[in-house]
């Protein structure tokens, strides 16, 4: 397995209704999976053969090996 696929991120919802959306690999990028998180719920996500991007909609903190991203910061 490619090392890129072993990268994980942790998403912690800071409000109810945070959407986590997985996007596909390939010639046409499409939604392939969605989750809805409530306040203080945590999801651990991973890039895979099928997932090339992860979109997060709502107020959340995302923890990666590159640092922490807070969606309410500009």
TrEMBL record:
Belongs to the MtrB family. Coiled coil: none annotated. Residues 6-72 form the Tryptophan RNA-binding attenuator protein domain. Pfam families: TrpBP (PF02081). It comes from Marinicrinis lubricantis. Keywords: RNA-binding, Transcription, Transcription regulation. InterPro entries: MtrB, Trp_RNA-bd_attenuator-like_dom, Trp_RNA-bd_attenuator_dom. Oligomer of 11 identical subunits arranged in doughnut-like structure. This is Transcription attenuation protein MtrB.
